[in-house]
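hiii, so i know i said id send this last week but things got crazy w the move. better late than never?? heres the sequnce for the chain we talked about at the cafe, plus the structure i predicted for it. fair warning i was half asleep when i ran it
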Amino acid sequence: MPPHNGQNITNLSGTWVMDKGLSNNLDAVFKLQGISWIIRKVISASTATLKITQGSDEVDDSPTCAPTEWMTLEPALAGGLEGTPEKRLLTWAKFEHNDNLFGRVIIRSHYVSGQRTEDGRVRPLIEPFTKVVSKPDSESILTEAVVLAPDTTGTEVEMDKAFIHDFIRSVYHGWTAEQIWTVEIIEEEPLLTHLHDGDRK
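okay and structure toks below
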């Protein structure tokens, strides 16, 4: 998705438009998640947008006195099909969300640090929850090093808040999804991207 105003991962507020020319075909993912064939065809034929609002709230009784950071996601398709808005706390706390497309899910989200590789790219410092036997495996997908936007990178080997890490579990349908979000440089343009992997039990 192209940037709204050159944001980095801590400032994504704006409306983002999915570039299908740079995106993988998600039909198999939606099928795994129980989305009907008709809805999948509508998604495939439509322009997808994602309105993001980020912010923070002061918490008086917080042991660290640090504000609680959050982001609100409002997905939509051209033609009027809208997803259910959701507010994700970026604290890794579990919360339940009832989505009109995916049903009831439990979500955890937080910022994660990045580590610079020898070629100057940055990889997320996480231990993936998703375990699959196919190749490439979850660890190689979710910890892939990328070229970050210039205002994200620094001279340090490790940097805070370089990525957002999500873990989502369906309450009724048995699937899980794990994602890494960042603003990376692709063909000299900064784009909001998310690497994802999933499993069905």
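btw The chain has a mean pLDDT of 82. thought thatd interest u
miss u guys!!
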